[in-house]
Amino acid sequence: FASGKIPAFESKDGFTLFEGSAIARYIASLSPNSGLLGTSPTDAALVDQWVSYIDSEVLSKGFSLYGLLHGQFPYNKPYETFLREKIHDGLTVLNTHLTHNTFFLRTNRISLADITAAAVSNVLFETFLGPDDRAKYPGIQRLLETVANQPKLKDVFGTIKYADAPLQYVPPKKEKPAAAATPAAPKVPKEKKPEKDDDDDEPLVPAEPKAKNPLDDLPKSAFNLEDWKRAYSNMDTRGPGGSLEWFYEKFDPEGFSIWRVDFKYNEELTQTFMSSNQIGGFFNRLEASKKYLFGSVGVLGEANNSRIAGAFILRGKDYKPVLDAAPDWESYEYKQIDLSNPEDKAFFEAALAWDLEIDGKKWADGKNFK
């Protein structure tokens, strides 16, 4: 199998497939009278539409949320909020359709789209969505219970288990390292010092002192950037008690400044995941400025119609000493944000909350530098 991943399928005659949706569609097509793909090319297209939507807008976000909450990559509270909102948006679309329709097709028969929606919602209802969340999607819950109780599917779904509370991130406990026993150092016989060679009296060349960053000479600030990074990572961004509230209480505009960042060559952007990787590369090249910088930058829009924008909080009043650590820093435009300006403040807050929208382009993906 080319992907080297599961699920994978191999028929008796050696035909192979990978990707769950492709496998499911192929198996459904082997029994045209089952109605799993509907009864017409139009029905089949609608099934493909809904399965694709569920995979991209709900299931993929669920996988990311699962990995985040289980520590498969560094935890980030704004990213958790972003993923939960995206899952909610996807489920709302499905629920709206199912509020007016028994199934996804008007044939009033269970299709592959219904089975896919039921399987995905079964996982979500069992893990991420508590009673209050599930109450928002009565159409999906009805579909799940209808599909899961079909005689031919009951053994596959088993008993539906609903979560009493949504799955939450639990920071790992810090374990104290066990003190290792220090072995006794073996006695080393003293060596006789060689007599000094009068001919070898050239002075040693002192090591060149490490260049000091001029940012370290700035007056001490009461705003602790590392404390801010922790607050941002562990708090909701907006709302009472959120990280923005913390920021406004602590921020020192004399010792730090805030900058809007925009990529100069948005017309060259194609796939949003590639643009997100570009941001990640830019951040990697800024690693030398980590102690002076925090950033929240995202991709807005969709494939072949997107832009990169965001905000930086950095030490000092000038962005160049902090950002020129990255060779490609000049590929971006920078404009200082004035928090007393309502438009600037709204941009800053939206960039940090990952709900920034510019010219109709909504936040699709993002990364934080911290």
TrEMBL record:
<keyword id="KW-0648">Protein biosynthesis</keyword>
<feature type="region of interest" description="Disordered">
    <location>
        <begin position="173"/>
        <end position="218"/>
    </location>
</feature>
<keyword id="KW-0251">Elongation factor</keyword>
<feature type="domain" description="GST C-terminal">
    <location>
        <begin position="40"/>
        <end position="167"/>
    </location>
</feature>
<dbReference type="GO" id="GO:0003746">
    <property type="term" value="F:translation elongation factor activity"/>
</dbReference>
<dbReference type="InterPro" id="IPR001662">
    <property type="entry name" value="EF1B_G_C"/>
</dbReference>
<dbReference type="Pfam" id="PF00043">
    <property type="entry name" value="GST_C"/>
</dbReference>
<feature type="domain" description="EF-1-gamma C-terminal">
    <location>
        <begin position="211"/>
        <end position="370"/>
    </location>
</feature>
<feature type="domain" description="GST N-terminal">
    <location>
        <begin position="1"/>
        <end position="35"/>
    </location>
</feature>
<dbReference type="InterPro" id="IPR004045">
    <property type="entry name" value="Glutathione_S-Trfase_N"/>
</dbReference>
<feature type="compositionally biased region" description="Low complexity">
    <location>
        <begin position="178"/>
        <end position="187"/>
    </location>
</feature>
<feature type="compositionally biased region" description="Basic and acidic residues">
    <location>
        <begin position="209"/>
        <end position="218"/>
    </location>
</feature>
<dbReference type="InterPro" id="IPR050802">
    <property type="entry name" value="EF-GSTs"/>
</dbReference>
<dbReference type="GO" id="GO:0005737">
    <property type="term" value="C:cytoplasm"/>
</dbReference>
<protein>
    <recommendedName>
        <fullName>Elongation factor 1-gamma</fullName>
    </recommendedName>
</protein>
<dbReference type="InterPro" id="IPR036249">
    <property type="entry name" value="Thioredoxin-like_sf"/>
</dbReference>
<dbReference type="InterPro" id="IPR036433">
    <property type="entry name" value="EF1B_G_C_sf"/>
</dbReference>
<dbReference type="InterPro" id="IPR010987">
    <property type="entry name" value="Glutathione-S-Trfase_C-like"/>
</dbReference>
<dbReference type="GO" id="GO:0005634">
    <property type="term" value="C:nucleus"/>
</dbReference>
<dbReference type="InterPro" id="IPR036282">
    <property type="entry name" value="Glutathione-S-Trfase_C_sf"/>
</dbReference>
<dbReference type="Pfam" id="PF00647">
    <property type="entry name" value="EF1G"/>
</dbReference>
<dbReference type="InterPro" id="IPR004046">
    <property type="entry name" value="GST_C"/>
</dbReference>
